[in-house]
Request: fold
Amino acid sequence: MTATLELALLIAVLGIGGIFIFMALFYLMIRALDKYLPYREDEPEGKSSE
Amino acid sequence: MGLEQLLPAIAGMTWQHLVMISVGLILIYLAIAKNYEPTLLLPMGFGAILVNIPLSSALTQIDPATGQAVEGVLNVFFEAGIATEIFPLLIFIAIGAMIDFSPLFRNPSLLLFGAAAQFGIFLTMVVAALMGYDIREAASIGIIGAADGPTSIVVASRFAPNLLGPISVAAYSYMALVPIIQPPVIRLLTSRKERLIRMTGNNNKKISKKALIAFPIVITIAAGIIAPSSLALIGFLMFGNLIRECGVLNKLSLSAQNELSSLVTILLGITIASTMTAERFIRLDTLFIIALGLFAFIFDTFGGVIFAKFLNLFRKEGNKINPMVGACGISAFPMSARVIHQMGQKEDPYNYLLMPAISANVGGQIGSVVAGGIILTLVPLLA
Reply:
């Protein structure tokens, strides 16, 4: 196994793991925002601006 | 005086130039007749013609009389807009202004498919390394699997500017070919029973405006703290989204979605074409890169579908995920979601997968940018 291939495998493993960590974090943030900033009847719905 | 002295471009014309002019014509044909990513493929096709006519003043040439370089406009654009990453980053503002993140708030767990469907990027990087490319080139080839043109351009322009032309052509071509690439892969990996799974979700849930405004700010801060190298990509995307959601910059939001996007896309397409010269493009590498790009797209789809099947092992009957939705974790928006919805309706006309598919697809838009940021962080760190 060449050094480049070893490095590619390492980056692949860390990269896939990293993306899942990022997305899991974003998931938690969405849940937190949804919990602490819930939709109220008296506010306009969060829709696109166009 | 012979014709060759009168028209020196003819004397300088080689078969390689003619091949590249044909490539340009094919790209223009695909853009106009097949509607394949016309906003990018048409400028790239025309640019390919522009740079492959010998002595083209669009490229930097050496003046034979003075021996000095006369700068060509496309080289100036390249140095100003691509080498500095300004063009793709401006496109990210426009994309951010176009994205509505509310589907993610309705089905947040589908965000994870935006991670799973980046699998093809990393597998392709490993295969490219196996084929003898150095790690920077392999990473740039792998990022074609992000199904996200601007991310591919940012990574390739930083790590492998010599491969930017074929990587951009592959990225944008395959993005347009999602309806052809994804369905056979999905059918191969799923049973009819799985494709018939109906998904219920909070599709009508109302989302707070404050939450949608806070989202891009919170994500930018979190991404910046964890991986500062990814901040330009994610930050510009989120900046565009904040302009959209804040509610007080509607004019700017519309400008970003329309005028900014159109202007930068024109410049981006024709500038990338400056790398599509015969000397740089007619190589075996180009064929390998185009083949590896297809491989990346196939394994992105594989990653998303298999991850959905894996999650279904732990979910109760009636709460399972239709594995086809996993394939929407790529960045090609909304094409991938539309393809999956149509596939679902083909199996069962009363199965509406559009909303969950859109949620996963929006997750893919974030996932591809995160993947680009991670590669930009890891490669210099470990190489």
